[in-house]
Amino acid sequence: FAFEAGSPAALAARRDALRAHGVDVTDIVDHNWARSFYFRDPNGVSLEYSCIVRDLTEEDAELREVTLPRAALGIDRSGKNAVS
Q: Is the pTM of this model over 0.85?
């Protein structure tokens, strides 16, 4: 489940607020068209805050396979988020 932050500044503020409350969150990941960070709720459900940083293009609509290493999300195999 993803929440829309609205802007890069608001995204960073949400991340900082969650960290201030003791929530383990990843660093902000730049997806080119959007930026996101990831965390888990108390039940272990993966959540995301995201914001779109540019208009989408026709090329963005093309289906392509993307591989993202688990380490890039800062989530270890135990299901807990690793925070740097």
A: no
Strands of 34-40's sheet in order across:
2-4, 46-52, 34-40, 29-30
Burial class (CB in 10 A: 0-12, 13-18, 19+), 42: exposed
* Spatial distance between the Cα atoms of 52 and 8, rounded to a whole number of angstroms: 8
Q: Confidence band (pLDDT; 50, 70, 90) for 69?
A: confident
Query: What's residue 14's pLDDT?
Result: 97
- Token pair of 68, please? 């993202």
Q: Which two tokens stand for residue 32?
A: 């080119």
